[in-house]
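Please check this record.
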Amino acid sequence: MTSEKLGKHSFDDIDRQLIALLKRDGRAPVAKLAEILKLSRGTVQIRLDRMLNSGALLGFTARVREDYEDGQINAIMMIEISGKNTTQVITRLRRLPQLRRVHTTSGKWDLVAEIRVENLAEFDKTLREVRLVDNIENSETSILLTSV
């Protein structure tokens, strides 16, 4: 059995299965989780409590489709950086609240930014702000239309 350490908690295979189930449905009842894992409800509750108390599990959440909120524009921007200025560019991009996440990547593009704005005017403004960041050589942006 392999284990991964996070803080004071070691994950075993059952913990990983439990976490995977919670990622799919954070609102699943403990009884349902126990049934799927073929464990007693008490055993599952003890494992959940242990992971919550150790900080390994931070909480439970509902997943919402990205296109659920009408009126919002979601986009992906691929960014090419000149030279070795990635850290400075990331620092500047993190200051833009419209960029929900910025990822480093391999391949042609150095960064991928997830954009969420309320309207096209804000989208246009965000694109201009990003393009004004020093050391951004090139970018390509795609608006996300429908989640499938």
Remarks:
- The chain has two domains: 4-54, 73-144.
- Residues 4-54 form a domain with the Arc Repressor Mutant, subunit A fold (CATH 1.10.10.10).
- Strands lie at 4-6, 9-11, 73-81, 99-104, 111-117, 136-144.
